[in-house]
Design a protein that fits this description.
The chain is an all-beta fold. Among the domains are: about 20-135 and about 195-200, Nucleic acid-binding proteins (OB fold (Dihydrolipoamide Acetyltransferase, E2P), Beta Barrel), CATH 2.40.50; about 225-280, Ribosomal protein L2, domain 3. The protein is built from one helix and 17 strands. The strands form five sheets. A seven-stranded antiparallel β-sheet has the order 9-16-10-13-14-15-17, with no helix packed on it. The longest helix has 6 residues, at about 210-215. It starts with a strand and ends in an 8-residue tail after the last strand.
Length: about 280
């Protein structure tokens, strides 16, 4: 996958780049695997805004991606197409099972049309195959990792991400996530071999505000441009300093370095080492 950089013919084109979508082989989604999403513009059932800066955007249809795949154990499937999904950063692939059913899966990097994949308890460790962690070779890259038995893949599903199986010693598997965090996961949980596709997603430059509006994001206003009753940074003459030891959220919490994870969370016992700070990497 490559990046196309536009010539600076206008202010909107300057510093703008897009994906070339060379991997995409089908432009229209499978009708039986899409459904309509009703837009809420960040509002709850009472009409109150619970997520700021959302609204508008083009009409999207949700692709029903299968994150479990365990109900198709031992049934081989062939990759029919690689498609774009507006609901996620990664590409998806349309697979045709031997029993005639079609489903969407997250497409790993390097997957090609015509490739055969399978979900087994113990499968061949090739890209696209899904199996239990106890049967994955140590050191292999994995994605769509299951955290709780039977719940389906929850982690490592975004573009270009990949976890690594570090160890199988003891009762639990040691998995290192993209953040650097090492976590204990039950060996009977499933994971897919390979790294998620569309690694160049992080290199795309939006370029102009209108493109964000097409994505459904509304403009964000700096806190120090607001009034004191609207934001802790507000007030003063023009763009004054925030007048605080450190930046705050609109609700008064420290914005940088403040840990919000509950110290008694049930999953703390499964975390061997915390995620690494980007500044120390």
């Amino acid at each position: 996958m490559g990046i196309k950089i536009y010539k600076p013919t206008t202010n909107g084109r300057r510093k703008m780049s897009v994906l070339t979508y060379e991997e995409i082989t089908k432009t229209k989604p499978e009708k039986s695997l899409v459904k309509r999403i009703k837009k809420h513009a960040g509002r709850n059932s009472q009409g109150k805004i619970t997520i700021r800066h959302q609204g508008g955007g083009y009409l999207k249809k949700y692709r029903m991606v299968d994150f479990k795949q365990v109900d198709k154990l031992n049934i081989p499937a062939k990759v029919a197409a690689i498609e774009y999904d507006p609901g996620r950063s990664a590409f998806i692939m349309l697979v045709n099972y031997k029993d005639g059913e079609k489903r969407y899966h997250i497409a790993p990097a390097g997957m090609e049309v015509g490739s055969e994949i399978v979900t087994k308890v113990k499968a061949k460790p090739q890209v696209g195959n899904r199996m239990k962690l106890r049967n994955v070779p140590v050191g292999f890259d994995i994605h769509n990792v299951e955290l709780n038995l039977g719940k389906g893949g929850q982690m490592v599903r975004s573009a270009g991400s990949g976890a690594k199986l570090v160890s199988l010693e003891g009762e639990m598997a040691h998995v290192q996530f993209p953040s650097g965090e090492v976590r204990l996961i039950h060996k009977d949980c499933y994971a897919t071999i390979g790294v998620v596709s569309n690694a160049d997603h992080q290199n795309v430059r939006i370029g102009k505000a209108g493109r964000m509006r097409h994505m459904g994001w509304k403009p964000q206003v700096l806190g120090k441009s607001m009034n004191p009753n609207d934001h802790p940074h507000g007030g003063g003459e023009g763009h004054s300093p925030i007048g605080l030891p450190g930046p705050r959220t609109p609700w008064g919490k420290p914005a940088l370095g403040y840990k919000t994870r509950w110290r008694k969370k049930y999953s703390n016992k499964y975390i061997i080492s915390r995620k690494k700070d980007k500044k120390t990497q």
